[in-house]
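Exam prep: given the inputs below (a chain plus adenosine-5'-diphosphate), describe the expected output before reading on.
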Amino acid sequence: MKNIAIYPGSFDPITNGHIDLIHRASKLFDKVIVGITQNIKKPSFLSIEDRINAANIVLSDIENTEVQQFDNLLVDFVYQQNAHVILRGLRAVSDFEYEFQLSGMNKRLRPDIETLFMTPSEQYANISSSLVREILVLGGDISAFVPESVEKLLKSYIKN
Ligand code: ADP
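Solution:
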């Protein structure tokens, strides 16, 4: 049986923090599937197609990773992919409360699926997609937080 982990999120945009976590997880699992979803609680900045393309480009050098869109319940998507692990990142105490609740609810829905948390590498601990978007819109330099291809994509949204 292959050991598959699903790393779900909105990835709006994928950042160096996400990429570092995926790199590290790819050494622990046979396959890491990055599941990109519309977040029903907030409108996205980038289109889902562009978020998927951006992730595919920046993850192309990690062989055992793939990117997929999902629009259904996370635990159902995990099950469909023959996976048993949901991966989430825990950056700060502020992430904890929401993540704790989410993993508890997912456990109630499908007790055989485990949520595993990874902490970021130190240099990525403060990066979040929302702050990257905010800095971008205010004209700041985001080059330390996202790969060049993602920076270009984000800037094209500002021009249009
Ligand atoms: P969501 O909209 O579900 O919060 P995100 O795309 O913002 O999705 O994040 C996906 C996952 O990656 C979440 O578990 C989040 O905590 C984690 N994450 C976000 N940024 C980082 C980072 N810099 N380092 C490690 N994990 C991160």
